Amino acid sequence: MEANELIDAWVTDVVLRLPRRQRNDVALELRTLLGEELAERVHGAARPPDAATTLAMLRAFGHPADVAARYRPTLSVIDPADGHAFVRWSIVGVAVIWIIGLLELFSQPRDNSVSLLAVLGAWWGRSALPALWWPGVLVVWFGLSAWSRRRRSTPPAWTPRTASHVHGGRPALLLAMIGIALGLIALAVPRLWIDAIWAGRAPAVVYEVFTYSDAFMAGPGPVLFTVLALYVPLYAAMMWVGQKTPLLRRIEFGLGLAGGVAMLWAVLVGPVFMAPVSDVPMRAAMVLSIVFVLAHAGWRRWRRVTPAPA
Which residues does 279 contact at the CB level (< 8 Å), separation at least 6? Predict the structure, then answer.
C-alpha cells in the first residue's frame, strides 16, 4: 500500500468512530497533520515516503480508537468532581445496610441447630446482595445532578463555608432545640406520650414495654439524658452568636463523645428496657449511634487541614 492509502485508511478508521457531523472536519485536520508529519520525517531523503515509514508514523500517532476518543465528546454519567463523593457514599450506604441486616438477623431467636455459616448465608441473600441497589440510586442521583448543572447558563457562585458555619442557620438550630427537648421528654418520661396517644387508657402491657430497667436508670440513663439536655443550651449559644466558635465546636465534639460513651455503657451494662421487644431495637439503635459518633470523629480528623510551614 502507498503512503496516502495508509493515511486514508487510518483516518477513515478514526472518523468512523465519531458522530457524523464531526467526521469531515476531523478527517481534514488529521490528513493535514499527518501529511506535515510525514513530510518532516522524509525531509532530505532522495525518495518518497514508503509504506514502512508511514505505518511507523501512524502507529506512533496512536491507535484509531484512542485518537477518536480525543475528539468524541466525553460521556460521563457522573461528573469527575462528584466521583469521590459517589464512591464514599456508596461505601457508607452499603456498609450501613449490611450492619442493619446483621443486627436484624442476630436479634432474632436462633435455632442452635443452625450453623453460623447458614446464618451468614441468609444474611448474604437477604441484605448483602440486595444492598447493591444503593449504588444504583446514587448513580441516578449524581447523574441528574450533573445534568442539572450542565443545563445552567452560568455555574453557581462559590459560597465559602468555614468551620464556624452553621448549616441551616438559626432556624435549623431552633428546630434542633425543639426536637431535642421533645425527644428528651419522650425518652425520660414515656408515660406522657403513652397517655397522650391512648388518652390515659393504654393497656398495661404498653407501659411495661417502655419501662426502663433498674440497671439503666441506676447508671447510664441519667448520664445519657443529661448529655442530651446539654445540647439545648449549646445550640442556644450558637443561635446567640450566630456561628460555631472554636469553644462551642469543642463543646459539641465533647458532648458527642460523652453521648457515645454513655450509650456504650448502656449497651454493656444490661437491658435498657425491661421487655425484650423494646430493648433489642433500642440497643441496636444505640450501637448504630456509637458507630456514627466514631465515624463522625474520624471524618473530622480526616478532613483536618494543617498547612505545612513554608
Answer: 213, 271, 272, 273
Q: Are residues 205 and 292 in the same domain?
A: yes
Give the count of alpha carbons within 13 A of 238, CB side only.
Answer: 31
CA pair distance 295, 262, nearest whole angstrom? 17
Nearest 5°: the CA angle 167, 172, 177 is: 125
Give yes or no: residues 22 and 147 share one domain: no
The verdict on 83 and 53 lying in the same domain is: no
Instruction: Please state, in angstroms and rounded to a whole number, the distance separating the CA atoms of residues 66 and 58.
Output: 12
**The total number of structural domains that make up the chain:** 3
Q: Which residue(s) pair with 273 in the sheet?
A: 212
Q: Which of 18, 19, 13 is CA-nearest to residue 58?
A: 13
**Contact indicator for 14, 68 with CB cutoff of 8 Å:** yes
Tell me if 72 sits within 8 A of 18, measured CB to CB: yes
What predicted TM-score, i.e. pTM, was given to this entire model? 0.55
Using alpha carbons, select from 134, 53, 72 the residue that is nearest to residue 97: 134
The candidate with the shortest Cα–Cα distance to 8, out of 25, 22, 28, is 28
**What would you measure as the largest C-alpha separation in the chain, in angstroms?**
109
pLDDT tens digits, one per residue of 8-50: 888 888 888 888 888 888 888 888 888 888 888 777 665 677 8
Give the residue numbers spanning the domain of 56.
3-71
Tens digits of residue pLDDT in 95-139: 888 888 877 776 666 666 666 677 677 777 777 788 878 888 888
